[in-house]
Amino acid sequence: MFKRIIIAISVVLTLLLSGLPASAALASSLPVVYGVPYGHQGGNFVDGKIKPTGELLWTGDGSAWFIIHSWKSWTASAAWGSATVHVRSCWGSCIKYKTEHTTLHFYRVEIHNGRPYFTRLHFGLSHKV
Q: Which of 39, 60, 79, 116 would disulfide-bridge 106, Cβ 3.0–4.6 Å?
């Protein structure tokens, strides 16, 4: 925790001393989400985004994905958003999906190359998968 605070402070100070506005300094200390809007195409740690919208693939076989609509909050420790989740509901030659609204909760921040990012995502489903 102490290490993250020091990194965040050093990033803010560096940006402030470079002449960038304070809003740019604050934005740079917020965690990003990697792999959106299109999942993990291109590998990990590519195109990190703050408050992304659009498609987020979360399975490798295309059996489930989110359409992220909006964000209620995005802080240095957690983010809460709204999405539609699409989950495949049958297998074999059957291809059907169940669709419902869900809340996204990104949390557990780590650092990669000096950049904070969320490592965990929690969401709920009202139906059994």
A: 79
